[in-house]
Structure formats: structure tokens, C-alpha cells
Amino acid sequence: MRIHDRHSSPLVRTARCLLAVLCLLLAAWVLPWLYRFATAGKQDTPFALYSHITGGFAFAGRSGGQARYYGADGQEFSESAFDSILPFFYFRQLTADGRFPDSISGVAVTPYDVQRSNFTFRTTPQECNRKGVPLYPLLESRSGRVDLTMPDDVFRMERRMEFIDMGSNSVNEDKSRAFTSMLEKKGFAFPPSLIAGNGTARKEYDNGYMMTDAAGKLYNVRMQAGRPYVRPIAMPDGVCPAHMAVTEFRARDMLAFLFDTQGRFWVLTSEYDMMQVEIPPFYPERMSMVIIGNMFDWTIRVVADDGEHLYAVDAQTLERIGTYTFPQPEPSVAERIGKYLLPVKLTFLSAKDRDVYPRFSFFSE
């Protein structure tokens, strides 16, 4: 008579294997997080802007528990002097102190001029890679009113431009035909490959949407006085937009920022001219960018896998006038040990998108 060991049955062995795999996955998820949490050190990079006054980058950080203001050449500044070398950023403080200059580089300026020309732009991989619902509100661009209002309908772009009333969930055929007819008249090939816009009334004015059609051609689509406005836009040879952002800054001198498949950064002006920004290749799906601009220059901060970089460009020509790279910190002892103790980690979230799913990577990444 053969006695079967119930602990060695196929079902038990399978359960044990599954339990072992589950424990390994749990360890790959929890242990690296706990290790980083216990050994994490503070690694802040200082606030930085290009100074038109000094012709170099200026930094504000902390050292020994005290605020420190200094230039790229090592020159130290007091807080008051730091305000003065960055008059476009600290114009409110300078105005309150009665120290705002009448002119800068021979150009007469007022606080209103500064406020009107200043702008900030930010793009992150999370925002760029976000998957949204392909329904877009089209605001009235020429209402004659100061305050914008949200429409009662949204549009979608497939084989035509179709407007859907949000209250009744019905298609507005007349409006859909009018916009579709105008798009086709201007040579638009459905369906579009890219759509970019700011579908909100929380802005001073509306420039509609930037779209690339199935053939890769660029268009500006708006609603003006209830009627369709479609403007084809010529692009330089070889430019294929990969990502776009409608700017709608207060100065109204730009329509959009475009990033093409070769990593080039373009500005579309209000006159529908395209100007290239002179910085190294930038890919918004995996790199972050912050721009702080004024009437004389822009400070562009790029965060990539190889570190943080600063670029200053002339506001008129968009040519580069300054570059600075923050030094990469040396790996700590804890990081070097963790690389060998916990070589692989499991995560469900990423700084480069908003999707939730299992991701395996090396501990050092």
C-alpha cells in the first residue's frame, strides 16, 4: 500500500511556488522603498535665474542654515543686491522699496511693462504622457467681453469635427458641418495626429487649438464671432511636431511652443513665424522644462537623466547667451551599498506618466 505525502502533492507545490513568487515581488517592492526612505539625504538644487544686469546666472540657496545669494563666478550678494540684479523677477519688491529702475540697458521700463512681458512655462513627462479624454471645449476667441465663458458643447476629431451638446448629448450638425467644411477647404486631412489647447476660461484671451492633420501639416483652429477660423501654418522643411503647447501669455507675442521629433524647440509667433530656440535636443516625454521669461531673456531649466541644466536665451533672437550645468552629486555610501544589496526594485508609479502598473528597474535608477 503506497502512502502519499499530502505536502508533496502537485497542488501544494504549486501553491508554495506562487507564495514564494509573491514574497519575492513584495520584497522587491517594499525593501527598496524602505531602504531609500531610511537613507535618503537632502539634495536640493538652488533657485537660479539669468541676470541681464550681470550677464550671468544668479543663484539663491542655503548654506550652513543661512540664505546665500551668489553668482556663477562665486561673487556673493546681499538679499537687497540680489533683488537689484534680477529686476524682472523681483520687480514688486523693488517697486515697494522705491528702487525699481527707470530704464534697463537703455530701454525705458515700468512695472507694468515687466508684468506684461513676464511669463512662466512648465512641462513635465507626467503631463506630456497623460492620456486624456479626446473631447475639447472650443471657446469664443472674439466675444467682445473681458471675461471668457465656457461653451455648452465640446468637439471631437475623427472623420470630421463634431460638436456635441453636453446637456442633451446630441450632435450640433450645423456647427459640425460649418467647421468641417472650413477645415477641408483649407486642406485639412482627417483625422488629426496632434491636438493642443487650453480648454479653460481661466485665462485672459483664447487662441483656440493647434492641430496637425493626418499629413503632418500644422493648423490653428478657432471660433471667432461664432464662425470657424482655420489658419494653415507653414513650417520649415523637416519639422514634424511631436508635442505642442498653446501659450496664451499676457504679452500676446507668441501662439505656441512646438517640440519636434528631432528634439528641436520652436516658438510660433503671433505673426505665424516659426523661430528655433537654441538649446540642445529636448524630448518632453522624458525630460522636464521650466521657462521663466522676461522682455530681455529667458532662463530655461531642463531636468534630464544626466542632470539639471540651465540655458539662457535672448528673448528677441532666441539665441543662447548662457549655459550652466549643476554638478552631479557623488553617490552616497548608502546608495552604493543598496545597488548591491537590492539590485532590482518593483514600482507601480513613475515620474514620467500617470499610469499605474508594475515596473521593474535597477535600484540605482
TrEMBL record:
<dbReference type="Pfam" id="PF16149">
    <property type="entry name" value="DUF4857"/>
</dbReference>
<protein>
    <submittedName>
        <fullName>DUF4857 domain-containing protein</fullName>
    </submittedName>
</protein>
<dbReference type="InterPro" id="IPR032333">
    <property type="entry name" value="DUF4857"/>
</dbReference>
